[in-house]
Amino acid sequence: MSDFFERKKQELGVELNKIQKKAVTKTEGPLLLLACPGSGKTTTMIMRIGYLIEEKGVQPKRIKAITFSRASATDMLERYARFFPGLAPVDFSTIHSLAFQITREYLSAGDYLMIEGGDSNRLNKKRLLKDIYARENDEPITDDQLEELVSFISFVKNKMVPKRKWKTLDEPFPGAIDILTVYEEFKENHEPRLVDFDDMLTIAFEALDTDRKLLSKYQKRWDYVMTDESQDTSMVQHAIVEKLVENHRNLCVVADDDQSIYTWRAAEPSYLLKFRQVYPDAYIMKMERNYRSSGTIVSTANQFIKANKLRHDKNMFTDRPEGGPIVIRRLASQEAQLKYLLKELSALEEYGNVAILYRNNSSSTLLMDELDRLGIPFYMKDADNRFFSHWIVQDILNFMRFSLRPERVDLYSKVASKTNAYWSASQLKQLGRMQPTKRHAFEEITLAITMKDYQLRIITEQRRSMDALKDMKPLKVIQAIRRDMGYDQMLKSRAEKFGMKLDYLQQILSTLEQIAEPLPTMMAFAKRLKQLEEVTRQAKTEKADDMLTLSTLHSSKGLEFDRVYLIDLVEGIVPTEEDADDPALLEEARRLFYVGMTRAKRHLELLSYDKESRFVEEVRRIALPKMKKAETFNRSATKAPKTKITVPHNPDAVSSTEELQVGAQIRHRVFGNGRITELDDEKVGIQFAKEHKEFLLEICLQYQLLELV
Which residues bind ATP (predicted)? Predict the structure, then answer.
């Protein structure tokens, strides 16, 4: 045994600690391995597989390793090949891949049709749900509702909730259970049977539960089974694994209940607490040594998560230096937070080991807008283009288009139901059939549609308001739409009717207003949104080593960075109002905060504004003795703290716009050499080798970003 570890130390430079070695050599029977953040769990798992093969004589094909995500499966496969290049492959796969394999054997090929995993199929899952919703509600489903519906259906299937109990569930919006029922019946009655990803799991369990021959085949295929990230595993996934190992019981479950953040996807962290009820002879081990973060971050995070009650007690520690204190800043507003972040980032010379983490993707839009203006390169871990196709964004653009083209009755018909004119369903259908003429749309509407007197008065007022928009700056236009067209009131009504979150809807409008603020015209605003949509697409697909990382807290799990900023840490976001009202959800929100904290290796900043998150206050109480000298926050939050930022001095930097001219060769501190193609009082356009960028002159001069070549 000691020869194995010594040999691997010589060959790979990998040296395991005492607990890791014990986890590697404890090969027989059920084992629950609780792995704290940064504790080297993947290395331990790979070494355990190698130990089984080299020391215990197990054939590689007799070992099954199951992961939560495809990326994890790929990572483990690559690391195994690097650690043990001479050994035959081991079967690494996701639980969905395994379920598909079982489903394919259980159902003959002609008896089912997959409706997920590709959009080319006419019978696509989301397309089916859109059609069912439209039939049930006589209006199209929004992107947000569709995502909620997909998550709800997945939750029900993964929780193995029987159909008779569906009516007792909390719906994401009124009518969701009815849509689920219609959807499931349609799939089951269709010829051939329709199967989505969640069905694969339930069918795989059904197969193992009812087909003794098939169960025996899979039980005999592997002598050892390992599961990774098991805190993210659902009830049906656990049930499949239980079936596979019920004979030999050689199961190693690697998990961290403190990092379970997917209960909304039906993850079952409580399973880990009940592990010995399922496997009475189970051995439970804790890998508590953190190799990633500074002493301050580790000790603070360890104390912070202990506020949760439903967990295995662990004491995470590290031998790394204490490092600097955790920085907590409470700023005056979201805008002040953004300005502070930009100053911080502008003072950095490298971005590759820096991350900004947030709860919701909506937090990234404004940040992305400013980073793009400043010329700071960034990568988005989970770029979400849905913001730009959101119905609110499209509404605002259609209002703007209509104000510039008042004869376009077709544009007004798209937003008519969102105004204060109280259109009836029949009137809206008439509007939808109208075609543009040379006359003002409101004149055509007045002639074509019979209206109540109060509607005529409102239409007259709407025309006056719409005609005034064309001379306004885009920020004023959005504010006028919200106020004069009754748009804010409509949002409130729709939120109540469809169970939407009003704060979220209003945040979209607030984001649009902030994007619009520096822009002179509605055309410039529409163009900027298009640019940002393209920037978002590129930020997802184009990743370079020296790029800042933007990520949701959920998607950051498994990542690590020298410098981490957690932003928008306010009540209503982390935790949400729903979290605050439910003890179990509040514990999950605390786990999510913990995941964010433990991504940082050396420097961690917690940024808030308005009503500061209770979690920030919990961290402050824990860390206060270590951070008294460094912390700069104002409990009254009346104004943002003044922060001295040092810009790297560049004696050759351009200091005046008079030094610049179109055609000049220029060097940008981040993007390198290029040529000036556009220049005005506010911005400069530069063509680089692979792309064209626009920058605000004020920022370029202030932060010494440019020099003449």
Answer: 35-42
